Amino acid sequence: EAGVTQFPSHSVIEKGQTVTLRCDPISGHDNLYWYRRVMGKEIKFLLHFVKESKQDESGMPNNRFLAERTGGTYSTLKVQPAELEDSGVYFCASSQVSGGGSPLHFGNGTRLTVT
Amino acid sequence: DAKTTQPPSMDCAEGRAANLPCNHSTISGNEYVYWYRQIHSQGPQYIIHGLKNNETNEMASLIITEDRKSSTLILPHATLRDTAVYYCIVRALDGTASKLTFGTGTRLQVTL
Question: Which of the residues A34, A104, A108 would you substitute to probe the B interface, choosing the one with the greatest number of B C-beta atoms within 10 Å?
Answer without folding.
Answer: A104
